[in-house]
Amino acid sequence: MDYMYGPGRNHLFVPGPVNIPEPVIRAMNRNNEDYRSPAVPALTKTLLEDVKKIFKTTSGTPFLIPTTGTGAWESALTNTLSPGDQIVSFLIGQFSLLWIDQQQRLKFNVDVIESEWGRGANLEILASKIAADTAHTIKAICIVHNETATGVTNNLAQVRKILDHYGHPALFLVDGVSSICALDFRMDEWGVDVALTGSQKALSLPTGMGIVCASPKALEASKTAKSVRVFFDWNDYLKFYKMGTYWPYTPSIQLLYGLRAALDLIFEEGLDNVIERHSRLGKATRLAVEAWGLKNCTQKEEWFSDTVTAVVVPPYIDSSEIVRRAWKRYNLSLGLGLNKVAGKVFRIGHLGNVNELQLLGCLAGVEMILKDVGYPVKLGSGVAAACAYLQNNIPMIASRI
Amino acid sequence: MDYMYGPGRNHLFVPGPVNIPEPVIRAMNRNNEDYRSPAVPALTKTLLEDVKKIFKTTSGTPFLIPTTGTGAWESALTNTLSPGDQIVSFLIGQFSLLWIDQQQRLKFNVDVIESEWGRGANLEILASKIAADTAHTIKAICIVHNETATGVTNNLAQVRKILDHYGHPALFLVDGVSSICALDFRMDEWGVDVALTGSQKALSLPTGMGIVCASPKALEASKTAKSVRVFFDWNDYLKFYKMGTYWPYTPSIQLLYGLRAALDLIFEEGLDNVIERHSRLGKATRLAVEAWGLKNCTQKEEWFSDTVTAVVVPPYIDSSEIVRRAWKRYNLSLGLGLNKVAGKVFRIGHLGNVNELQLLGCLAGVEMILKDVGYPVKLGSGVAAACAYLQNNIPMIASRI
Amino acid sequence: MDYMYGPGRNHLFVPGPVNIPEPVIRAMNRNNEDYRSPAVPALTKTLLEDVKKIFKTTSGTPFLIPTTGTGAWESALTNTLSPGDQIVSFLIGQFSLLWIDQQQRLKFNVDVIESEWGRGANLEILASKIAADTAHTIKAICIVHNETATGVTNNLAQVRKILDHYGHPALFLVDGVSSICALDFRMDEWGVDVALTGSQKALSLPTGMGIVCASPKALEASKTAKSVRVFFDWNDYLKFYKMGTYWPYTPSIQLLYGLRAALDLIFEEGLDNVIERHSRLGKATRLAVEAWGLKNCTQKEEWFSDTVTAVVVPPYIDSSEIVRRAWKRYNLSLGLGLNKVAGKVFRIGHLGNVNELQLLGCLAGVEMILKDVGYPVKLGSGVAAACAYLQNNIPMIASRI
Amino acid sequence: MDYMYGPGRNHLFVPGPVNIPEPVIRAMNRNNEDYRSPAVPALTKTLLEDVKKIFKTTSGTPFLIPTTGTGAWESALTNTLSPGDQIVSFLIGQFSLLWIDQQQRLKFNVDVIESEWGRGANLEILASKIAADTAHTIKAICIVHNETATGVTNNLAQVRKILDHYGHPALFLVDGVSSICALDFRMDEWGVDVALTGSQKALSLPTGMGIVCASPKALEASKTAKSVRVFFDWNDYLKFYKMGTYWPYTPSIQLLYGLRAALDLIFEEGLDNVIERHSRLGKATRLAVEAWGLKNCTQKEEWFSDTVTAVVVPPYIDSSEIVRRAWKRYNLSLGLGLNKVAGKVFRIGHLGNVNELQLLGCLAGVEMILKDVGYPVKLGSGVAAACAYLQNNIPMIASRI
Question: Which segments constitute the Aminotransferase class V domain (chains A, B, C, D) (predicted)?
Answer without folding.
Answer: 47-293
